[in-house]
Amino acid sequence: MNRTVIARAGAGVVFLAGAWFAYTQQANQPAQLNLNKVKEDLYEIEGDGGNVAVYITNEGVILIDDKFDQDHAQIVAKVKSVTNQPIKYVINTHYHADHSGGNAKFLPATEIISTANARKNIIEHVQSNAPPGVMPARVTFTTESAVFLGGKEVRARYFGRGHTNGDAVIYFPALRTIHTGDLMAGNTPLIDYPGGGSVVEWTKTLDAAMKDWDFDTVIPGHGPVTTKANLLTYRNNVEKLRNRAQALVRGGKGQDDVAKVMMAEFGWMPNSLQMQWSLPGMMKELK
Description:
Layout: H1 3-24, E1 34-39, E2 42-46, E3 52-57, E4 60-64, H2 72-80, E5 87-91, H3 97-100, H4 103-106, E6 111-115, H5 116-123, E7 139-141, E8 144-149, E9 152-157, E10 169-172, E11 177-185, H6 199-212, E12 217-222, E13 226-227, H7 228-250, H8 255-266, H9 273-285
Helix pairs in contact: 6-7, 7-8
């Protein structure tokens, strides 16, 4: 095995271990969060749960996602370090607790917005390992919504299924930047079949976003800020994974055999969420 393969495998292991750690909430204390400037009045907060986008206007702040409940104080402190404006809106990219877990502490002073399916999944406790008390959005949309604040616009659109059945992609048109939620996260997709995800629809969803919106910068659900070119690479890797798994399933291979290939070629880990949520669903969807 060459050094490049070892490095890539190691990176995949680190991401999956970190994602599992975040989802299962094993830490007694919240991890340290980092604030990074993306463009002009747009920042992002990394660490612990999903990436939070922070858009500053002269009438208030718009957040994209709010991590876990335990991260609330740090998020507020990071926002206050760059503006005195209050947080007026939080737009959830999807229902998972590492992206929507802070809703309860932002409500009712801050308005929470999500897709209708994301709200439904929270209400129905679809995430099996979610901590208690995750609150759903009070304002929902089925296809598209927008927030206009301080002369600035943020759009949220449901392009279709992928990571879940309620993924919102967020667009900052003036800055040619999007936030993908977990439609781009780490090195390999997590298809949440219990939450309505689809590896078949995933690439179509990303294709629609890349076709309809003019952007060059991407804030992923997890990981560093990146580019549209790298989002296309991620999309192509999802397609590669899907085609490989589909060939195995239609060739008569069982779940254990498919699991071995996913681990060897795509960095999936034993007992990971991919194995729990994605693999059984793929076996059915890819027949």
